[in-house]
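Q: What does the assembled structure look like for these inputs?
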Amino acid sequence: MTSLLIIVVLVLLAVALWQLTKIFDLTQVGARVAGANSQVANDKDNNLQGYLMFGFLAFIYIITIYCLIYFGDLPLMSNSASVHGKEIDRLMWITVVLIFLVQTVTQALLHYFAFKYRGRQGQQALYYADNDKLEFIWSVIPAIVLAGLILYGLYAWTNIMFVDSEEEVIEIEVYAKQFSWEARYSGKDNTLGKANVRYIEGVNTLGVDMSDPNAQDDISATELHIPKGKKVLFKFRSQDVLHSAYFPHFRAQMNVVPGMVTQFAFTPSLTTTEMRELPEIQAKVERINQIRAKRSEKLVAKGDAALDPYTFDFFIACNKICGASHYNMQMKVVVDTPEEYAAWLKGQKTIAEKVKEEKASQAAENAPATAVDSAAVTAKNDVVSQSPAGQK
Amino acid sequence: MSAVAHNHDHAHGHDHAHDHEHHHKDTFITKYIFSIDHKMIAKQYLITGIIMGVIGVGMSMLFRMQLAWPGESFKIFNVLLGDKWAPEGVMANDIYLALVTIHGTIMVFFVLTAGLSGTFSNLLIPLQIGARDMASGFMNMISYWLFFLSSVIMVISLFVESGPASAGWTIYPPLSALPQAISGSGTGMTLWLVSMAIFIASSLMGSLNYVVTVINLRTKGMSMTRLPLTIWAFFVTAIIGILSFPVLLSAALLLLMDRSFGTSFFLSDIFIAGEVLHYQGGSPVLFEHLFWFLGHPEVYIVILPAMGLVSEVMATNARKPIFGYRAMIMSILAIAFLSTIVWGHHMFVSGMNPFLGSVFTFTTLLIAIPSAVKAFNWITTIWKGNLQLNPAMLFAIGFVSTFITGGLTGIILGDSTLDINVHDTYFVVAHFHLVMGISALYGLFAGVYHWYPKLFGRMMNKNMGYIHFWITSVCAYGVFFPMHFIGLAGLPRRYYDNTNFPLFDDLQNVNVIITVFALVGGVFQLVFLYNFFVSIFYGKRAEQNPWRSTTLEWTAPVEHIHGNWPGEIPTVHRWPYDYSKPGHDEDFVMQHIPYKEGEEQLHH
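A:
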């Protein structure tokens, strides 16, 4: 419906413009026969186009206000779920307000001048070639304002990106591959075991070096659980192409690069349950569920299954083009209270246990020939160059 | 002038039995195909660019339809993409990425680099500086034909069985290096790289020619501070191109080696399709550095010529000198310099050392200062003018408007802290489309409407021009303004379908609005195409100086001749912006008119 409306309005606008210019053409027939068809703007054109310019200013303002009202509920500019997110949001708001201010004023000047000084026969333009004072003013003002923004930005950036090595953090590995995510927890020793793609085998999908003592208590999971209020240092690894771990609600993002380990640290400030209870989030979820209900009706009418109602969850989305199914590479993120987190972690099996189970079941299936495989794996040890534990 | 004489000889190297006073009989092939005349080469660039533009814009309309109505069946998809890529009219996810990739490549390189800078540098440099032709007409011809060849290869890559390149126009490896990762990285990617390598050769030949011509072939009296701003812009653009395009070539060659000869420049530790690959020790981040070392200057290669054209069109139609001529030159130079040291702002979250992020934030936000100076100078130029609102002038004003709107959001993206959360979302898409896509296109349109009489000796229809402008500008804002908001809501770019994230369900209606504006805006470009092609044959014949402009190209006869001026080359006596100068009867004084007795120079 909206689309139809927009098309109709634009087509009518085109027709109206065409007609207006036609009328102006006709009124000129008697006036200036010679210059009428020169395809150079005359006073009538200048007049009409000048008014349209002023009208266009109105259009810019209207579309701005419309967008602010209807799409201006920006979940990513408030309700951050991490500690540093508040800082980013504050800087964002300052910058956005500033930008809107400059935008409103400069567009007004530009379009108003285009209207006010539209050409008229006999009008004389002012010969005004330069003015050092003006140039100075409008170089210095942006310079000062930007200096402020740069300083604030760099201060925040340094706080976010540099992790104090003395600080006590929980290290979690986030592992990317086409087109899914996995997580690895360091276990009781709080040290991730060495890993490399050359160790990938069976259930050891993360390529953990099972001969490394630090790797023995490592835990893998397909859902990312993190505790509220504790600083988490994420170590990112990819096994195939570039990915990007985008945690929109935590104002966090880092590319995941094959062949190296990247990192990003943040402290979650709201649990999933707390986030779900925020009024803004509840309103948004309700709105989304209305949309989904409407869409479900159509689907059911067609004989398809209805959509599940939506409940809010944090997620990691892949935000660097990584292949055909890039659009559906996501992992659920759950922020627990520290107690819930500890309990959840206790319930998870270590990678070592999983490998052992796999071996046992394989051995049960075909008794001989398994010992050879593990020997082949250890022989590859010398090739390994990168490991998360080695990168500090 | 010896350079001119040499040039003249060169232009007639194959046929030296006459001089240019006599009409030179060209065959169809030497006149229209393998021409060494800069005006013809300009037209060839423009028309090739327009054809590539039709392909690029058409692709964007297709994937916008997919985004607005995901998974719906459209007959047009099946017709254009075929059964393999659009079975039963539903667009497949891999061809979506291919469309996005080729749209970006074509628009950035083939339309806005070659179509804009190639056309107008070729047309205007010799005419505005008072030269008979480019320094090397032959190299100029080679430059165009290499561009043509690269366009053909790029178009051919659309038809290979495994599909065209689909790793995004930034072709980051390993995705672009491994056919196992995405099918477009097979033959399609090889053709992409070959096409770009040829394109770069073409661009370098063109740029070297422009620089040499501007330095050596200026007519008597044409000092650097009497050059029109167009020439300054083309000159500096060519220099940035010479400095940065070779780096892309090296990146492309290294990537080609990784793909074909088993080297590991960009690849390391890869497990894909069930096996470990042998690559060891390379880094994709190195590729990102090499790519953006060109990639960022590239956006200025696109926007600076547009700025130059807009400055010229604006001064002429405002009947006023451009405000702050020297400040404009200084800001072009400052932008050019800064553009080469800001590439890292594309890589804040790439995994490079965060300290580098701080440095690049600093240099990036500095670039806002010369940009702001330019915007304020344009606004002051139309203040108290006598604005002749020709279609070219409307596009020039539209340029300033979109440049401000798009440029301001750069303050958010250039700030590493804020970039963390909007990086690679639709906010970025909105930003760069407004500031370098739409703005540069407006510059191109302004240039075409303004210099059409010089290109084809005829006028374009102004009423069609007005309709074209207003629909385009309404649609441009209609497409890209709401896009900022879905970006701020966290919607990642290059997603084939957003329905897997229920969080984004309430953004679907915005996507529909954007698509409708895009489709209408795209369709109305037909008005321009019709106007352009029909006016070549049926347009009203142009006067010598229809816009009453001051620069030298309007002293040349309408009829195109080898060597541009039938007699002596005009000598220059004043700067190019003596519009409405007090003490003159007309509201413009052309550059070749000497100062009257007692006339003073009023500008600094």
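Chain A touches chain B through 134 residues (CB under 8 Å).
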